[in-house]
Amino acid sequence: MHRRPFRRATVLAITGLLVFAGTAMADQLLADGDVVTPGLQGTRALGNVAAGAEVSVDVGFRLTCTGLGHVNAGQSVVLGWAGGGSKPPGGDIVSVTSATLDPLTTPWAPDGAGCPSPVPSQLGGAYSTVTLRAPTTPALGYMYTVVYTRSLTPEDPSDGSAFTGPATQVSFTLNVAGNTAPTLTVPASFEIEGNTTGGWTAVWSGVSATDPEDNPDPTPTCDPAAGSVLPLGTTPVSCSVTDSAGASATGGFDVTVVDTTAPVLSGMPGDQSLTTADPSGAIVTYQSPTATDVVDPSPAVVCAPASGSTFPLGPTNVTCTATDASGRSSAASFTVDVTFVAPHTASAIWLEPVGDGQDAFEANHSRTIPVKVRLFVDGVERSSGQAQLTLTPCGGGAAALELPLSWSGGRWNASLDTSMLPGDCYTVAASIDGAVAGTFRLELRGEASPARSNGQATSTTLPRKVGHSKPR
Question: Is 353 part of any domain?
């Protein structure tokens, strides 16, 4: 974890002195502890530092002409960490970077000559960064001393024993305070509308933390985490944050997810109209609508009356209601109008040779009977439509023969070849457009030939009946 650095405006003050050989006094190299504040700051107190924290300080330098020994024009002073100095128990000098000061550009005095007036002075134009580690035990006035080595570049034979004077060094103090726990900020509990299947995708603002020692500030975590889907109802969210020294803070808030949006119906049937011959009504089927909802993946849809129900005569309002898991509902309706239409009645008048109004018509096997009939629907004679004769055995069973009727001569006609019939008694029915209009009983005399009976010849003596009938 990085700790908060001191700004260059608060540079550590360092005092240094270079003494060159062959002179009683030489140029001075002094530290500028505050490059913003005018003047040279010789020493600096760093104030309160967190236990075990590291702090980095930039050190600037100023070279001033003094005495008779001087740095040559064009030379630079190179400062490096000598590795010496002192540090308090539990503290450490982590690192000290070297600094090469800018070459002299200000008019300077040669060796053996005094300094011109006004006395020239020049900022070094480079910094040495000192990184210190504070002790872990809280206390006041911890002392550190950093010692620099010095050399000149480029070297000159006239430099001699330039570094016999006092070493360039810096001393500073700091106080170790107890670690302050971070401050956790969380939003107030809130209510929000669901926005996805199953609830709400958690996206919240206002969760943050600050810490007086850590930089950057520690990052809080929450459970459930942002991005989770919170279900309908109230979910407690627990948050915590821990700084680099292990101090922590906790907090939380409640999120109540609601679903106030009703589902949306789609595919509603349109109004319907139909007829029925049943005075009690008609069975009606329809395609039920579907429903969608933001939160509920499958809202229930119920329609009443239901598809497949018997609808009474007249208009009936069908209401379809969609309901989601939160109880929110929406409804739509359509109308089914059932109209009663009385069934058609059909009747027949049998013309000669069958005749009308008698019980039965008798004929010999193999005779072709010209059947002539007038057909009526709801009392109105019909001359068009689908008309036919259907022969069914008198004992019941499947139809033995179906013959189409054709209209001509003001009547419907068909030629009934009895040689096609293996039996001796049939009910003959005339129908128009599927409605049976009339029937008569056909009784055949004599024996049916083996060819006609398909190998099942029978010999039946039938009672002789005179006359004809008009079946109902």
Answer: yes
Predicted TM-score (pTM) above 0.90: no
Distance, in Å, from the CA atom of 352 to the CA atom of 332, rounded to the nearest integer, reads 64
Number of H helices, E strands in the chain: 1, 35
| CATH number of the domain within which 374 lies | 2.60.40.10
The encoded tokens of residue 139 equal 């206390």
pLDDT of residue 26: 67
In a domain, 380, yes or no: yes
Say what the pLDDT of residue 151 is: 84
What does the DSSP 8-state code read for residue 15? B
Q: What is the DSSP letter of 397?
A: -
347 membership: H or E segment, kind and range: strand 346-351
For residue 240, what are the domain limits? 183-258
**Cis omega (within 30 of 0) on the bond before 182?**
no
In angstroms, rounded to a whole number, what is the distance separating the alpha carbons of residues 232 and 209?
A: 29
For tokens 């950057």, name the residue: 216
Listed in sequence order, the residues at least 6 apart from 389 whose beta carbon sits closer than 8 Å to its beta carbon are 371, 401, 402, 403, 404, 405, 414, 416, 428, 429, 430
| Strand-pair partners of 223 | 238
pLDDT at 31: 62
- Both 335 and 194 in one domain: the answer is no
Kindly state whether residue 63 falls inside one of the protein's structural domains: yes
What is the tally of structural domains in the chain? Answer: 4
Q: Which tokens belong to 102?
A: 């800018």
C-beta separation of 77 from 29 below 8 A: yes
Tell me the pLDDT of the chain averaged across its residues.
84
What does each C-alpha distance from 164 to 24, 69, 128 come to in angstroms?
Answer: 11, 12, 22
The structure tokens listed for 292 are 């969608």
Residue 137 lies in a domain: yes
d(Cα 431, Cα 344) in Å, to the nearest integer?
12
What's at 460, amino acid-wise? T
Phi–psi pair at 421, nearest 5 degrees: -110, 125
Query: Phi then psi for 251, rounded to 5 degrees?
Result: -170, 180
